[in-house]
Amino acid sequence: SPQQIPGGGAKAAAASGVALLAVARVGDGAVLAKLADRAASSAELRSFDEALAGLLDRAARLPAFPNWKASHGLGDEGCVYMLADPQALCVVAAAVRGQYSERLAHALLQELAREARAAETEERISEAKAGQLSRSLKAQLGSLMRNYSEPSKMDKVAEVHEKVDRVKGLMQDNVKRILETHVTIESLESKSTSLSTSANQFLKQSTDLKRQVQARNLRVKVVTATVASALVLYLSMPLFGQ
Q1: β-strands 78-84, 90-97: how paired?
Q2: pLDDT, the chain, mean
Q3: Which of the residues 89, 102, 177, 194 has an alpha carbon 20 to 30 A from that of 11?
Q4: Count of other CB atoms within 10 angstroms of residue 191
Q5: How far apart are CA 159 and CA 193, in angstroms?
Q6: Are 43 and 19 within 8 A, CB to CB?
Q7: Residue 156 phi/psi, 5° resolution?
């Protein structure tokens, strides 16, 4: 059964937007760690658990790929969001109540995925039995549930993080474009050098051919002049004999 986070009474719990957090393995859908809000009713948790089971079944059948996202809406009750970690070894899920911000829910999942992978080794995640990591991840799950139970406060933080990530993405794209441009310039320089070499070879071959043609023409002229001189001499011999 999932551990429950202590609450400050029904009023404080009702204000909480996060009802359930879970970490599960992609391969077999085993829920390795789970934490439920103490104020959540049995019926509410049962509804969220059914949605979670459906998403885990989808993740196992696909199977889920790195950073895969999915969600299961429950009308006015809320929604269950799911996210695969960058290695697609495990998925994290958050069941939220009411009109909880989707952006904030995904920010929660990303932070939960980071903390789960930082706290547990790949071997532990791969070999742990269902529920075995609930104790070791209790502090992380509890802290995230408390922090994200104030949507208005955390939404501003998430918005700042999103802006930072967007700027970081733009910087990475710019660096990538610069590197691609550098590669393109190097490629053009290489092609230019190759064309220049080919042009030089062509000019050299043309010069050699021109010299060969000139030499042949000269030989033809010399032979023609020699033959003509010999013919004139031959025809002039009778005159010299008289």
Answers
A1: antiparallel
A2: 84
A3: 102
A4: 10
A5: 51
A6: no
A7: -65, -40
